[in-house]
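Hi all, long-time lurker, first post. I run a small reading group and we've been trying to get comfortable going from sequence to structure in the token notation. Rather than ask abstract questions, I figured I'd post a concrete chain and ask someone more experienced to write out its structure so we can walk through it together at our next meeting. Sequence below, copied exactly:
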Amino acid sequence: MSAPLLVVTDLVKRFGGLAATDGLSLDVTTGETHALIGPNGAGKTTLIAQLQGELSPDQGTIVFKGQDITHAPAHARAKLGMARSFQITSVFPEFTVLQNVALAVQAREGHGFRFWSQASRDPRLLEPARVALDTIGLIHRAGREARDLSHGERRQLELAMALAMRPSLLLLDEPMAGMGRQEGLRMTRILESLKGAYSILLVEHDMDAVFALADRCSVLVAGRAIATGAPDEIRNDPAVRDAYLGKKHDPRQ
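-- Answer (accepted) --
Happy to help. Here is the structure in token form:
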């Protein structure tokens, strides 16, 4: 297995008396899809927020590409090659699909949004945006306003915006949240097509998708990783089954 791209060591984040992450350690290697699973309240989204720079940890370290980024701002992490998608879609509904992705390219290049009227016609931004849309199968919707997309298509658009940042590591926080079966299968196929080309840290409740996509899984319970291993190891781990998988799982929980 490749050397770690991301190393998280003894990460702690408290909210009052609650430790949302409690001495959490894990790593993601180059080209790996590493899934985080666990019940609500386990600390998954809090971990993603700390990795992305939205939250600052109380203790522990985050090392990315050999650099300590524990207290680095979000824009510095993005510049190093970390991109995040969210549980709730965050696109600009009044802009076209292509313009949304071009904005992500513009942000990557460090241009100011005050020049958006010119930038929306700039081929240096539009061509990379088209490539990202083609990669995730949404190029046929490039000229439509984002407000007209289905929920699943909006999630695809958000993924295209993340890819437009040319990331080394994708932080995907429940990319299938709110999707029906067919939309979820489509997103699973898209993520399968990205395997190996990108390192991915995936938070997801859909266990079929997790076991289809993940090279390794870490199971979070009460802010700690109680097990890390290949999907079959995790599926058959008694402690994991008792803590999480052994329950009749409702993906809404």
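A couple of things your group might point at:
The chain is about 35% helix and 25% strand.
Residues 181-194 form the longest helix (14 residues).
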